[in-house]
Design brief:
This protein has 6 helices and 14 strands. It has helices spanning 102-112, 130-142, 159-164, 198-209, 214-225, 237-240, and strands spanning 19-25, 43-49, 63-64, 80-81, 84-88, 91-94, 118-121, 123-124, 126-127, 146-149, 154-156, 169-171, 176-179, 233-236. By secondary structure, the chain is an alpha/beta fold. The longest helix is centred in the middle third of the chain and has 13 residues, at 130-142. It has one domain (19-69, 76-240): 2-enoyl-CoA Hydratase, Chain A, domain 1, CATH 3.90.226.
């Protein structure tokens, strides 16, 4: 199963003044721009959006995607801080699922190794706590780390949000990514909720914070949710590059 736990998003809003932005709606029209090569179809409407507080954007449930049969993760060694491993003075690796302790482990690692500037996502199946995972993504961005997927790296489910968090992104040609829809405790997925529901707005807000325009955030979110939670859409590094700028 792609999701071993369920996702139930709750949202408390901090009003920083209304802003005009495009919000996802799930009607079938053709995409334009960078997403034109994708098969996902969305329509975008304009309405006021309230910025969300990072601590209440998502409930602490989990999202995972199992590795493909025969996959062998690269061997990674180094001082351990939760799912992180220190590779050298400038690099750390993520080698497991994140959980509620991961933001603290990340900060402890940076306190002990302040020169780390790149996070390599090696074997990343997802997260056990979506709220903490988004908080971790915001910390990665705030601390100015780049994200990189090395040879043989696999970034799946909730870990894709962490890849997006880098101030710079790169991936080797044989890196792989996997996305899918989240599901709540009742088995409902994103498209079962109104586009303006907090459950959907939480992710759109995060993608905007990671540098996507309103239209890009809506299209990317629709693409991930076009695949049922029980399945997976696998993307090559080149395909992921249609959504994320490599530099």
């Amino acid at each position: 199963m792609r999701c071993l736990a369920t996702l139930a998003l709750g949202l408390a809003a901090l009003c920083a003044g209304p802003a005009s932005a495009q919000v996802l709606a799930f009607d079938a029209v053709a995409l334009s721009g960078p997403a034109a090569t994708q098969l996902v179809t969305v329509t975008e409407t304009t309405e006021e959006v309230i910025e969300e507080d990072d601590d209440v954007a998502a409930a602490g449930s989990g999202r995972f995607v199992a590795a493909l049969p025969g996959y062998a993760a690269p061997v990674t060694r180094g001082a351990a801080y939760g799912p992180f491993r220190v590779l050298d003075d400038g690099r750390a690796a993520l080698v497991g699922a994140t959980d509620e302790r991961s933001p603290g482990a990340f900060l402890a690692m940076l306190a002990a190794h302040p020169g780390i500037a790149t996070l390599e996502l090696v074997e990343c199946p997802g997260t056990e706590d979506d709220r903490a995972n988004l908080r971790l993504g915001r910390l990665i961005r705030a601390r100015g780390l780049a994200t990189h997927v090395p040879d043989g790296g696999s970034v799946r489910s909730g870990a894709v949000e962490l890849f997006l968090a880098g101030v710079h992104h790169s991936a080797e040609a044989d890196a792989e990514f996997a996305v899918h829809a989240w599901a709540d405790e009742d088995g409902r997925e994103a498209t079962d909720y109104p586009a303006s529901a907090p459950e959907n707005r939480a992710y759109l807000a995060y993608y905007r914070e990671m540098g996507m325009s309103a239209g890009e955030a809506a299209a990317f979110y629709a693409m991930t949710n076009s695949v049922p939670n029980a399945s997976a859409r696998w993307l090559t590094a080149a395909e992921m590059g249609r959504w994320v700028r490599y530099d």
